[in-house]
Specification:
By secondary structure, the chain is mainly alpha-helical. The protein folds into two domains: 62 residues, no CATH class; 60 residues, no CATH class. The chain contains eight helices and no strands. Helix 3 crosses helix 4 and helix 5 packs antiparallel against helix 7.
């Protein structure tokens, strides 16, 4: 989501910027950029931050405007996070180790999982741990 500020169509057009932020379509810096020229958006953001009940109502309205119920709507961040969790599940890795010990092929599955993990990590704007350590 690092390109959000450069892509004005990074969220569905039926959502206002605050709703897009609540659903994870844009990040906070993008929202604040868009709010800079709009007192209405800035006021709406302030109300959402100050009033969690109002934020929940606005979130539900946003999801309904997309044609999804509260429980069905998945944002790109939700999908990336679910993929990340699945790719790092130690139970799955234990199963692969067991299958490998039994002589079953697992290399293709590991390659697919590594690729999915890297895509999810990138979608969540995470860096490999070695890169994070090097910055410290």
């Amino acid at each position: 989501m690092t390109d959000d500020r450069n892509n004005p169509l990074s969220h569905p057009p039926q959502l206002d910027p605050v709703q897009a932020w609540l659903l994870g379509y844009i990040d906070l810096p993008t929202l604040l950029d868009r709010a800079a020229d709009s007192p209405e958006v800035l006021a709406l953001y302030g109300r959402v931050v100050a009033d969690p009940a109002y934020a929940e109502v606005l979130l539900e309205q946003a999801q309904q405007s997309l044609g999804a119920t509260f429980d069905e709507a998945l944002t790109p961040v939700d999908i990336a996070y679910d993929t990340y969790v699945a790719a790092t599940d130690p139970t799955d890795e234990a199963l692969l180790i067991e299958q490998h010990a039994l002589g079953q092929p697992v290399d293709d599955e590991r390659t697919d999982r590594r690729r999915e993990f890297e895509q999810a990590r990138d979608a969540l704007s995470l860096r490999p741990s070695g890169e994070q350590e090097a910055e410290r």
